[in-house]
Write a structure and sequence with these properties.
4 helices, mainly alpha
């Protein structure tokens, strides 16, 4: 669970550097949270990810869900481990 949280926060930081059209829904869903909690952060720097991580519990559920969903698509977790 902790690894997913870290990956989700890293994803938030990478969103601003993503090409146009990539991650638009996450950026749109989280825009108000980013403005509220991380206003003035350089979207191309690591500060945004650190800021989002610091405010993870305060982010809207929709924002957290969007980040989780995007992260799960990027790093799918297998239902079971192959032996």
């Amino acid at each position: 669970m902790r690894v997913r949280l870290i990956l989700a926060i890293a994803t938030a930081a990478a969103l601003a550097a993503a090409p146009a059209g990539a991650g638009v829904s996450v950026r749109k869903v989280c825009a108000a949270d980013m403005k509220t909690y991380c206003h003035g952060m350089n979207p191309l720097g690591s500060g945004l990810g650190k800021c989002m991580k610091a405010h993870w519990d305060e982010l809207t559920e929709d924002c957290r869900a969007a980040i989780r969903e995007r992260e799960e698509k990027r790093h799918p977790v297998p239902d079971r481990l192959d032996e």
